[in-house]
């Protein structure tokens, strides 16, 4: 716990799968024993050998399995979604994969084809890719106070990253919800922030990474999780005070910039929330070319090109 | 000229070399006949067959040429820089490459090793990679006026991109100059903006791309130019009026946002300046997930991971 993490360490922890550009040999080695989840000539995600083995064992007619790829049968979104649901429901029932049996969320996520068209909907716990929205609510620096960021602590009872620090608001984009509607809904549910206030939040970009799930994410480790996080900033006055509403968050603290930096270095933040804060620091001139030797690598890694199609509805 | 360009078109025009992630087959095809300019086991840049042929023909003892790579002799920065200068001076004198003979700038640029240590200094016209700094000076939106951006037009007589629209301030980072010192110097030289004002500019990130030089860049076409642009924003009041100082720029115009968008769509901006404006639009909530279908691709492409080491001093 006492090791001080650099910003690049924190990026490496999230964008943890080797880059084909920066580490082509390691990337080739790591992908060589993975199957591709394909749609026609395009890739929707990487599949671990353990998942391919489970599909082969079950021998369901709606999967086509080659030595290098898997694909799902069905000529409509509905048919593909139904086939996927059948497989995941079975895994949920027989406990084959913890991410399905213990991690079931009852939330449908969208998987897109590379042309940006909806390919299928599937239960969140089984999806190979995530679209998320994260918002940073902050009080700008004044003459007497530094910039301060509203920082919640996750409930210690949460199965994933319990007790860690989080972004002001964060949530997954369910199928059929727009990015912005998701932000408004989550802001109300997690932080008691009214829609009228959140409508002033500014879209400021998107960060992306290819994450290798570790034990803190719950369920099997080693699963490959490409994620995009749509990023929003909300500048607020001192009169705005977020408060827990559902059971996601324990409390909110208006954390001065230096304390945010210290908690980042201590590894107190949920990793993909640290990622969003590093992007905030870059955009707000807190991390600069003059004070960060790994500036270029950090900024490009924050925006990893993903080989998997992801888009908002 | 009448074709309307999308933001993704403008990104494609700058980041024009195929991505190993998004277009692995095209990337492999395009790189298969290039030599790598290497330093030990690391790559400093891609070299065209025509350049390798010229090196073979000259048969200088300070180049080692293999079937797939070239490297330069010298165990110190000074020796490598001297060897590189000898080759470039010869090309400048004998007119072998227009980029050297006609494009000579008398500016030394730094080339770094992958560990961020200076590897050699070389004349700007021959360098395989560029570090640049670009600043956008803007007047924020008011109740009666939209956001406006100070936009210069390049002198029609310039050999590269003459007559096109530019960013408020832009310049290359010479060896020995820091990013910020370059910004201050260029702001004074190109836009008559005083150092005291420019010291308030905010570092807001870095954009990167791998550009295939076209005829508008001057000299040989097809050369591969990896570039990073350090990006700064400067919020100004109506009282700040930039003015040409050297002969780079014809005039400055305080351009309303909608006009900037129109000129972008018409292709009036120098391509890598359009790139900086698209990043500005993303960070300022002008391009959003709701209004831009290619949002994720645009934001990740703006921050291409480069296989070549680049860093500020």
The secondary-structure element order of chain A is: HHEEHEEHHEEEEEHHEEEHHH
CATH class of the largest domain in chain A: Alpha Beta
User: Greatest chain-chain interface?
Assistant: A-B, 40 and 40 residues
Say what oligomer this is. homodimer
| Overall average pLDDT of chain A | 92
How many domains of chain A? The number is 2
Q: CATH homologous superfamily of the largest domain in chain A - what is it?
A: Nucleoside Triphosphate Pyrophosphohydrolase
GO molecular function (chains A, B): 8-oxo-dGDP phosphatase activity
InterPro entries (chains A, B): DUF4743 (IPR031804), NUDIX_hydrolase-like_dom_sf (IPR015797), NUDIX_hydrolase_dom (IPR000086)
Pfam families (chains A, B): DUF4743, NUDIX
Domain Nudix hydrolase (chains A, B): 132-277
Structure description:
Two copies of one chain form a homodimer. The first copy, chain A, is α+β, with helices and mostly antiparallel strands. The first copy, chain A, has two domains: 7-15 and 129-301, Nucleoside Triphosphate Pyrophosphohydrolase; 34-126, 2-Layer Sandwich (Transcription Regulator spoIIAA), CATH 3.30.750.160. Chain A has ten helices and twelve strands. In chain A, the strands form three sheets. In chain A, strands 7, 8, 9, 10, 11 and 12 form a six-stranded mixed β-sheet that branches. In chain A, strands 2-1-4-3 form a four-stranded mixed β-sheet. In chain A, strands 5-6 form a two-stranded antiparallel ribbon. In chain A, a hairpin with a 3-residue loop joins strand 3 (63-65) and strand 4. Chains A and B meet through strand 10 and helix 10 of A and strand 10 and helix 10 of B. Chains A, B: It comes from Sphaerosporella brunnea. Chains A, B: GO terms for molecular function: 8-oxo-dGDP phosphatase activity.
């Amino acid at each position: 716990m006492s090791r001080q993490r650099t910003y690049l360490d924190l990026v490496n922890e999230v964008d943890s799968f080797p880059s084909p550009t920066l580490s082509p040999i390691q990337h080739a080695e790591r992908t060589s024993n993975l199957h591709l989840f394909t749609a026609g000539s395009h890739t929707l995600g990487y599949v671990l050998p353990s998942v391919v083995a489970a599909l082969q064992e079950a021998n369901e007619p709606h999967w086509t399995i080659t030595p290098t790829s898997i694909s799902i049968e069905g000529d409509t979104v509905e048919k593909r979604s139904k086939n996927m649901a059948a497989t995941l429901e079975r895994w949920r029932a027989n406990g084959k994969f913890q991410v399905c049996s213990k991690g079931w969320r009852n939330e449908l996520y969208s998987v897109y084809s590379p042309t940006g068209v909806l390919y299928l909907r599937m239960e969140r716990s089984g999806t190979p890719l995530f679209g998320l929205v994260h918002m940073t609510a902050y009080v700008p620096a004044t003459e007497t106070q530094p910039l301060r960021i509203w920082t919640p602590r996750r409930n210690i009872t949460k199965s994933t990253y319990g007790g860690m620090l989080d972004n002001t608001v964060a949530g997954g984009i369910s199928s059929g919800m727009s990015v912005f509607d998701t932000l408004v809904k989550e802001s109300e549910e997690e932080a008691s922030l009214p829609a009228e206030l959140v409508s002033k939040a500014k879209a400021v970009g998107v960060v992306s990474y290819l994450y290798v799930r570790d034990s803190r994410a719950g369920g099997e480790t080693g699963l490959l999780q490409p994620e995009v996080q749509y990023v929003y900033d909300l500048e607020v006055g001192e009169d705005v005070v977020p408060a827990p509403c559902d059971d996601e968050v324990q409390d909110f603290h208006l954390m001065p910039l230096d304390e945010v930096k210290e908690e980042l270095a201590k590894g107190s933040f949920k990793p993909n929330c640290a990622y969003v804060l590093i992007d905030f620091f870059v955009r707000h001139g807190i991390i600069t070319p003059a004070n960060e030797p790994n500036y270029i690598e950090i900024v490009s890694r924050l925006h990893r090109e993903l080989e998997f199609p992801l888009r908002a509805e």
